Each structure stands twice: as C-alpha cells, then as structure tokens.
Automatic annotation (TrEMBL):
SUPFAM superfamilies: SSO1389-like. Gene3D superfamilies: SSO1389-like (3.40.50.10640). InterPro entries: CRISPR-assoc_prot_DxTHG_CS, CRISPR-assoc_prot_TM1812. It comes from Anaerobranca gottschalkii DSM 13577. NCBIfam families: cas_TM1812, CRISPR_DxTHG. This is CRISPR-associated protein, TM1812 family.
C-alpha cells in the first residue's frame, strides 16, 4: 500500500514562470511553499507523486523545487535546458520528451525516498482526439496503482477543465477498477482570493 498524490502543474506567472509562495494550513500545521504538492507531501507523508502537466507547464520549476542536487551549476543547467524547450515549444509543438520527464520523476523519487513516481504529459483537451489522449494517460496511471493504494488528488493548478477531467477519471478508476484503491482527499489551494478574504487566505481546502 502506498499514499499516492496525483497533481497537475500549470504555467505559473507568465512573466517569471513561478507560483507565489503561500502559507498552507492543514489542521493546526502550516507549510510555506510555492507548490501545494510539497505541503501535501509533508503533511500526509506521501510515497509517490504522479505529476501531470502540458507542453507549457513549468516543469523546470518542479525539478528545481524537488531537486537535492548539490552541484548548483549542474542543477541550474538542467533546469535551463528544460525551460528553453518549453519556451521554444508550444501547444501544438511539444519539445519536452521522455528524457526530461524521467529526470523530473527521478528527482521526485529521490526527494520522497520512495520508488514509483512518474510524470505525464497531457494535451489541452480542445477536441475529441486530445480528450481521448488524456483519457489514455489516466488509464496508464490506473495501471500504476496497486491494491490498497490511497489517492490524494490535488486540483489546484492548470486549466479548470483538466482538473474536472482529472477528478472524473480518478473517481472512475476508484469505482470501476478491480484494484482496491481509495480516494482519501481532494484538495484545492484557494490562493485566488488573495487580498480579498483574509480569513481563508492561509487555508487549504479539501473535501
């Protein structure tokens, strides 16, 4: 049995490709991080992460955030190469390849100290073909799940349509799969109301 976090990464700030650091509160504990995924990892002692993103997602920031590489020049060089591919590519011309995703997956595994994390590319879901390709990605994820796995679903980032699709597919897997898997929580870091509703500014919403 493993605790598995399924999360989608977006594009962040279009100017500097980053998320604002936020103070997420879960129960009586607080976690300050730019990635809600890291707060969930710490609080729930996550074993694996299945990280999803598109051709323009800020994969380089995921690598930098989770990396334990001591050679800073090497780390920044790797991140820079990934960022360059993302900037040169586009919606219909994805330059991120399996080698890049494997590097990030290995980095996440080293951070967690547990094998089995993976990164997946999603299409934007703008037509039937792209929706079907995304459907197949989630079928691949279902194959990676094992009996007894507990699923923690983060729908904070990326397009809302992908978040809804993500939830529908994982709910489908929970109810249809022959494996005994359970959704333990669905999470949304509500940073959109920053500066409007102070009371919920630092809370992490989940169901």
């Amino acid at each position: 049995m493993a605790k598995v976090l399924i999360t989608i990464i977006g594009t962040g700030n279009p100017i500097n490709r980053s998320y604002k650091p936020a103070l997420y509160k879960i129960g009586d504990k607080e976690y300050e991080t730019e990635f809600i995924a890291k707060a969930l990892v710490q609080h729930y002692q996550i074993d694996k992460i299945f990280m999803l993103g598109t051709a323009k997602s800020m994969w380089e920031e995921v690598y930098l955030s989770f990396s334990k590489e001591e050679d800073q020049d090497k780390m920044l060089s790797r991140a820079g190469k990934i960022e360059e591919k993302i900037k040169k590519g586009g919606y219909d011309k994805c330059l991120i390849d399996e080698g890049d995703l494997k590097l990030i997956s290995n980095t996440i595994e080293e951070y967690l100290g547990y094998q089995g994390s993976k990164c997946y590319l999603l299409k934007y879901g703008l037509n039937d073909q792209e929706i079907m390709e995304n459907f197949n990605v989630f079928l691949e994820i279902e194959k990676e799940l094992n009996d007894g796995d507990e699923i923690y679903l983060d729908i904070t980032h990326s397009f809302r349509s992908l978040a809804i699709f993500q939830y529908m597919m994982i709910n489908f897997a929970e109810n249809v799969s022959k494996k005994d898997i359970k959704i333990k929580g669905i999470f949304y870091g509500m940073l959109d109301v920053y500066g409007q509703i102070l009371k919920i500014l630092k809370k992490l919403y989940y169901y």
